[in-house]
Amino acid sequence: MTTTEWITDIALVLIVFRQLREGRLDRRTFLIPLGIVAVVAYSYLDSVPTAGNDLVLIAALTAVGAALGIAGGACTRIRPLDGHLMIKAGAVSAVLWVLGMGARMGFQVWVEHGGADDVARFSIDHHITSDQAWVAAFVLMAVTEVVTRVATIYVRSRARATTGAPASAASAAPVLDRTA
User: Fold this and answer.
1) 135-171 as b/e, with b when 16 or more CB fall inside 10 Å?
2) pLDDT at 33
3) Are strands 84-89 and 76-81 parallel, antiparallel or unpaired?
4) What pLDDT score was predicted for residue 163?
């Protein structure tokens, strides 16, 4: 793994650790992780191979990313406080995030340190046609995990901001802080 890959992976892991401490739900909550995966996708996603079972591999890992992202977003606590929404990643959310990010890092380290032959055999046995299929699968898994987690938190924050607020007090309902 290159230094850039280590920095990117560690930055994505640190995003959730930052949320282990409760903080205000603001634009940064959404923009930082989306910005990081946008850079990752731009840097590593050259193509999406469609030959053989490449799409099956890509779809499977993308689905894993979606499941981890939705579950992580659902396990993140969102609560109103003084007219703002507060966010805190719980232990389950952090474990799911680290599991997803760590699995990708672990796979890459394993391939670089002796696992390449095993991956090649698996690819041949399962009609995966190129290493680009693996790259696309893991990049799309990461992107999907981040996007679904952020989307789940956003949907939950919008529901939380309006739940239980009387019609006449709609302006007093907690809202996403757009100033930060």
Assistant:
1) bbbbbbbbbbbbbbbbbbbbebbeebbeeeeeeeeee
2) 86
3) antiparallel
4) 62
CB 101 within 8 A of CB 13: yes
- Give per-residue pLDDT as tens, 100-153: 888 888 898 899 899 989 999 999 999 999 888 998 999 999 999 999 999 999
For residue 41, give every residue at least 6 positions away whose Cβ sits within 8 Å of its Cβ, in sequence order, or none. 139, 143
Asked whether the whole model's pTM tops 0.85, one would answer: no
**From CA 95, how far away is CA 116, in angstroms rounded?**
27
Q: Which of 4-13, 24-33, 52-61 has the highest mean pLDDT?
A: 52-61
Residue type, 110: W
Q: What gap in Å lies between CA 39 and CA 179, rounded to an integer? A: 24
Question: Does the pLDDT at position 14 exceed 90?
Answer: no
